[in-house]
Amino acid sequence: MLTREEIICQLTSSQPFDLIVIGGGVTGAGIALDAAARGLRTALLEKGDYASGTSSKSTKLIHGGLRYLKQLEFGLVREVGQERAIVHRLAPHLVKPEKMLLPLVKNGAYGYWATSFGLWVYDWLAGVKDDDRRQMLSKTTTCNLEPLFAPDVVIGGGYYAEYRTDDARLTVELVKTAASYGAICLNYARVTGLLYGEERKIKGVKFQDEWDVSAPERAVEGQVVVSAAGPWVDELRSLDQSLTGKRLFLSKGVHLVVDHGRFPIRQAVYFDAPDGRMIFAIPRGRATYFGTTDTPYSEPPETVHVNRADADYLLGAVNAVFPGISLNIEDVESSWAGLRPLIYEPEKSASEMSRRDELFESHSGLISIAGGKLTGYRRMAERVVNRVAVRLGRRMLRSQTRRIPLCGGIFTNARAVADYEIELSGRLAMLGIPTCRAAYLVCNYGRQAEMVLSYFEEQPECEAERELILAEVRFAIRHEQACHPLDWIERRSGRLYFDLPATRPYMGAIIDAFSAHYHWSDKKRETVRLETEKTIFDASHFV
Ligand code: FAD
Predict the structure, then answer these.
(1) Higher pLDDT among residues 72 and 197, named by residue
(2) Label partner for 285 (CA 20 to 30 A): which of 247, 333, 388, 531?
(3) Contacts for 426 with CB less than 8 Å, ≥ 6 apart
(4) Which of 73, 164, 232, 356 most suits a substitution to test ligand 1, by most atoms within 8 Å of the C-beta?
(5) pLDDT confidence of 427, banded at 50, 70, 90?
(6) Residue 136 half-sphere exposure toward CB, CA atoms < 13 A
(7) 3-state class of 264 per DSSP?
């Protein structure tokens, strides 16, 4: 992978790009891959780390969105439902099938027949086949599958197919795959202004290197500029002086994480909260996470955080449906809050507003994309690049991304992923690494686990767990543009959310590895350490 300096040099000293993408969330990363794979000279600029916006704060499901059926969003459910199997094929280690259990309860909003029909329609729209089609379950089977349900309340269940993923890793792998097709991608590069040519038509952007704030703003020229800035789309439209007509509406969604031992569900469930909203609870390794909320948000997007009221709401919802576990605030190990960038629809509540994506094109030519789902990133990208092709006035290849495996995703099918995991666990045992890490490594890195292990340095006097962490950090720095310990702890490994207790003892070593690579002064190292500690503290403390 190119160094940061080499990337900056390529951005600023070459011919104008065909396309500049603003925003390195899943939408921007998907667009960069689609465009680069169709032969466009593509640049992508992200103001923070890749996926540092909404794309690391989702429910981490590749799903059709069962609840959108209620809103009669058949087109959306069909499109994202069908995408699930495609994205699974492109990265079978990272997008894995997950059966979802929907309990039916006495006096619940939906009875047996309505649920059965709804799930049938859901499968039909998505083209779900054979064994994966929904099953309706008896009370006994439902309670056997999930013994934590209160047997005097549950009367049966629906059982249907979804997929789970890690949103941030999906985004990072998309960026890396785009780079492998020639896209020039840079994180910590904030777009601060737009460049205009004749008749005030956009011809590029200015950006500030957020890792070297003393550096001057730099210009990148491009024939077309696409803003995929998620919750910041309207900010960019303001910068372009084109914020007219439809606007964004930001809706906050929160998730909490507890030790799996405190909420030992056996499998993913999707249940009604007492107020009628639907909540997911999903086991993941040594943790269980649950969410989400859906509340209007009007503060600056970067200040979004989980507050005590959000946490109390989710804890109350879980305790109402799983009365045996009595979760309380001290059980929460970690949490996250994200913003859905929805298109505002008057007279609708946050949860009623459509999740469809929409394209805006300003007089200056700025194309903005907003709304949509993680699951639909590929189709959104295809639509955007089709529009870019029209603007460029070029005949281009059709979208190729249906057939491009993501980095690390070279597996013939899910069986091959499982075989690789077994093979890897044997090798981990020989290195003294707990074999349970095989699942984690394969899920996070796929075949790139080989590269991670090539950075593993056996040190007789050091714990293998520490050395594995350092190998991952080296890989993240050298191949994934990780610039800050949080880039790895939060977004490359997901450990901030799902494995903090096992990571905490090595925090000093992790920060040292970054400090040594980037030659930080003691002062800089201390600043980074404080930032890291603050983020970890904030993830489990609420006011
Ligand atoms: P973002 O990820 O926010 O990316 C925009 C990027 O633009 C940011 O990284 C930001 O830093 C960057 N940026 C902004 N301004 C600038 C600038 N000036 N210069 C450079 N860069 C800039 N979808 C699903 O399919 N499945 C789910 O389970 C799911 N669950 C969800 C749960 C919640 C609580 C939420 C909030 C959303 C969920 N979604 C889900 C929706 C999904 O997460 C979003 O649709 C998707 O992540 C949006 O991605 P994005 O790239 O458009 O935005």
Answers:
(1) 197
(2) 531
(3) 435
(4) 232
(5) very high
(6) 12
(7) coil
